[in-house]
């Protein structure tokens, strides 16, 4: 089971792994906490955007071979730290949700599916989005309730990413939301990563999952991050997006495993 905060997060962080596991015959389940109705798009934030983004999520999930898609139904907290003030957030914002109640809702699905594995985010939520931080808390507790043995924190190898962004920034003007300095403390340093999953065989499905999220490729005053990623040529796309990274906290830091179900020690 792959637990994400909003539609499109699955395409960016875990799509290759999902497609790989589905191709291997595993039942892959995708759960999102929110519909992402406060995301930046050409249409106004709100219920209509949420419905659009869920439709995009189903298209993405189909491309990846998912057997089931669920939304927990919480409100998108927005990108500002802690979602902004309480007055700016929806009444049911995920960041304001009771973590234990949300964990029990997720654990119910884990029980129903008899899931062997759950993916969440790292404690900082990758780049710090409040809903991503809540995914970590809720997912970790849900796995405890359900007795799910394998919990992987979906992340990005920070070290080569920062180097790439520094070089890229010399020749390309990044979108306003893309603060290179923020990535210097985001995600995970190389020495903490336990799983480096080669998904180059599944980048066609990963690209299709990204392309499904049409609403998130537009909006704002400049190119959106997703739109920029979709412009990367095929061979370079396989190189850049052909690895997905995870941290499993019950393994030694830096264990070099290549599949979510690899055993330790090898």
TrEMBL record:
Keywords: Zinc. It comes from the Bacteria. One of its GO terms (biological process) is glycoside metabolic process. InterPro entries: GlcNAc_PI_deacetylase-related, LmbE-like_dom_sf. GO terms for molecular function: hydrolase activity, acting on carbon-nitrogen (but not peptide) bonds, in linear amides. Gene3D superfamilies: LmbE-like (3.40.50.10320). This is PIG-L family deacetylase. It comes from Nonomuraea cypriaca.
